[in-house]
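dude i think i finally got it to work??
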Amino acid sequence: MAQKSVLITGCSSGIGYDAAHTLKARGWRVFASCRKQDDCDRLIAEGLESPRIDYDDEVSIDTGLDAVLAATGGTLDAVFNNGAYGIPGLVEDLPTEALRAILQTNLIGYHHLTRRLIPVMRAQGGGRIVNCSSVMGYTSYPWRGAYVATKWALEGLTDTLRLELHGEPIHVVLIEPGLITTKFGANGRIQFEKWIDWRNSIHRDRYEKDLMRKWRGDNPQAGLEVPASHVTAKLIHALESRRPHPRYKITKLAHFAKFLTRILPTRASDWVVRRAS
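look at this
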């Protein structure tokens, strides 16, 4: 049987890193892309093939994918769009340019790469497109408006693509993790300091009493995190099963959040989320 190939984005750490090494160990030919060349070089030293792909740089998306297709002879069995980041902060304090920037990374970059791959998969007779969403792709949370906006949009775009490709042998899948132990929080704090002028916000006290308190270690949700391997386990099913599910929820939090959105009226679910956030 011919070796299967997969391109995974955002592999410098966390979900992408775990998925890349696990799939390689299962016999996949893995192209583990990163945004920074230094991270690509590190993964190459670890035995992975690692093209540089930065969702913020569409030239890098094209050149990185071209390198992958040149290596495989023009085919690719699967893509896992995974790289993303958050910008913690209140929507009122979110600069418009910050929202544009995060949409480019978390949504538009996914779209650009996916559009390039659909003709490739169609020509070879099939493929898998797997997009990493979040529990915040169907549930809104305070302080996470920018990230929520990108993931809700990704869910809608992915669902539409799945409907449009019905009848073709290209499976379109959403992975919806809850809290995963990664560098996501630390990276989000960097973005917060870059974009959010919280010291001059009318809500400065809220930042100090809520967001800053959690960053100082008083975060009751920290115990709900699970390792990135939980995501990889669902990704394996999405890539290797004959009929992958349209959605894979990961962690009890993700399942519970979906349950709440189904059974509770909006005001009630708002109350629950406010209490839990």
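The CA atoms of residues 92 and 199 lie 14 Å apart.
im so relieved honestly
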